[in-house]
């Protein structure tokens, strides 16, 4: 029996659990810091919080952080990895992935995605439903490429950046760390670290801090 622990019992976690069942994980257990007030996530039970998970790592063949927020996902992934957890990588059977693409530990690839030749993706990333990542792209740790987003060839995306639903990124573009590309944006210029860009063509906006 292959036993998987998922930390993070929200909607994204349900999708990851569903994928995991399709690719051979027999027993899937959720952990979430809302436990014990929250005891189920859809079809799956929640059996503890993050502290409980850290005390039970030896009971699982794989662990994955199923939290959508990039910063939080990376922080939890790093803690678990440092504690000796075996970080799982889960790919939906309906994804198309080149044999020459590489995926880091803790990354999930959803249904309908395409990862082309010589794509390299870091740890704890999310490549979401129907996204495409073309040849020679380099994506950092804990990035999130949202549903229906399309990256042309030779794109670079920095650690913990977010590319929104339906966004399009021109070939050769560099997106810096912790940047946010809005839904439907068309990115034709490099995006500096920490910037939020929206629109067609994508332009930076100031995001209120409170």
Describe this structure in words.
The structure is a single chain. This protein is an alpha/beta fold and 210 residues long. The chain folds into 2 domains: 3-88, Rossmann fold, CATH 3.40.50; 89-197, 3 Solenoid (UDP N-Acetylglucosamine Acyltransferase, domain 1). It has 3 helices and 24 strands. Strands 6-9-12-15-18-21-23-24 form an 8-stranded mixed β-sheet, with helices on one face. A hairpin with a 2-residue loop joins strand 3 (40-41) and strand 4 (44-48). The protein is globular. The termini are far apart.
Question: What tags apply to this protein structure?
Answer:
24 strands; 210 residues; 29% strand; globular; 3 helices; six-stranded parallel sheet; 2 domains; eight-stranded mixed sheet; UDP N-Acetylglucosamine Acyltransferase, domain 1; Rossmann fold; alpha/beta
Q: In this structure, how is the largest beta sheet organized?
A: 8 strands, mixed
What is the CATH class of the largest domain? Mainly Beta
Class per helix and strand makeup: alpha/beta
Average per-residue pLDDT, rounded, comes to 96
Q: CATH superfamily assignment of the largest domain?
A: Hexapeptide repeat proteins
State the total count of DSSP E strands: 24
The DSSP helix count reads 3
Helix content: 10-25%
């Amino acid at each position: 029996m292959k036993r998987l622990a998922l930390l993070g019992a929200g909607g994204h976690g349900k999708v990851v659990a569903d994928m995991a069942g399709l690719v051979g994980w027999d027993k899937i257990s959720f952990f979430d810091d809302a436990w014990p007030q929250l005891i189920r996530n859809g079809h799956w039970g929640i059996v503890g919080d993050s502290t409980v998970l850290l005390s039970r790592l030896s009971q699982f063949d794989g662990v994955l952080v199923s939290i959508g927020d990039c910063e939080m996902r990376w922080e939890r992934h790093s803690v678990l990895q440092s504690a000796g957890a075996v970080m799982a990588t889960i790919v939906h059977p309906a994804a198309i992935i080149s044999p020459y693409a590489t995926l880091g530990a803790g990354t999930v690839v959803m249904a309908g995605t395409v990862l082309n030749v010589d794509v390299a993706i870091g740890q704890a990333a999310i490549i979401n439903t129907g996204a495409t990542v073309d040849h020679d792209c380099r994506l950092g740790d804990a990035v999130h490429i949202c549903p229906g987003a399309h990256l042309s060839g030779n794109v670079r995306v920095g650690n913990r950046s977010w590319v929104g639903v339906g966004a399009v990124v021109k070939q050769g573009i560099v997106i810096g760390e912790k940047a946010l590309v809005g839904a439907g944006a068309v990115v034709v210029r490099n995006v500096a670290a920490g910037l939020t860009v929206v629109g067609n063509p994508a332009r930076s906006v100031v995001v209120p801090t409170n």
